[in-house]
Amino acid sequence: xxxxxxxxxxxxxxxxxxxxxxxxxxxxxxxxxxxxxxxxxxxxxxxxxxxxxxxxxxxxxxxxxxxxxxxxxxxxxxxxxxxxxxxxxxxxxxxxxxxxxxxxxxxxxxxxxxxxxxxxxxxxxxxxxxxxxxxxxxxxxxxxxxxxxxxxxxxxxxxxxxxxxxxxxxxxxxxxxxxxxxxxxxxxxxxxxxxxxxxxxxxxxxxxxxxxxxxxxxxxxxxxxxxxxxxxxxxxxxxxxxxxxxxxxxxxxxxxxxxxxxxxxxxxxxxxxxxxxxxxxxxxxxxx
Length: 288
Ligand SMILES: [Zn+2]
Prior knowledge:
The longest helix is centred in the C-terminal third of the chain and has 13 residues. The chain is mainly β. Strand 8 and strand 9 form a beta hairpin. The strands form two sheets. Strands 2, 3, 4, 5, 6, 7, 10, 11, 12, 13, 14 and 15 form a twelve-stranded mixed sheet that branches. The chain has a three-stranded mixed sheet with strand order 1-8-9, with no helix packed on it. The protein has one domain: Alpha carbonic anhydrase (Carbonic Anhydrase II), CATH 3.10.200.10. The structure holds zinc ion (ZN). The site of zinc ion has 6 residues, from strand 7.
């Protein structure tokens, strides 16, 4: 086997400020210091509470010089997203965006070598902005993408999502970057149901044949970074083991405009990395 190189993983960088989590997106978040994206963000945010030290907040700026390539810990082949068709039941819209909720008997799971247990799907949602130049929560070398979908799972070691929220390793969230570009036929059934939910103001049923796979990058584009962080929305619980895929999926401006009609922007600023280590499948995967 080829020798593995490890990159320096020591440094804390300063990307943004602090706070973070990942749940249904509210339209505000605590931020504290200026960042390049600050002007696009909301201010006057509530202070975090609960298990929040501000030392492991999300999102963060993922930078080539601070990630560690770790092929033992980060193995694409070990990632198992076992989705059971029918588990995603409904879409609802609120002031913070849209959210797809699972049914009571959900049995869709996420497991991977970099996770300490099996995690069960709870919901998914997205973040975006009023135009394609920003909207993602995580950034790559300081550059934002147009949006980010978050698939939220909780640790089955704990009894419920609520219990898991209070634990250091309670949640696992998969982040998928959206890049405004060509029409994405795989996203259209979801976009259609979100449009209906927004127009009617009433929860809508998900298409019966929906599969999470349709929202992810193809299998050969599943490089990821992982780090310990938080929800990016209140209560900003520091409970999340993040898995952020570095290859974006393309979605058209017309499709993103359906999200923008619900709320023009709902992303949080990058937070301080502090002493955290960010691991990646391949260092080159960050250099997009
Ligand atoms: Zn989120």
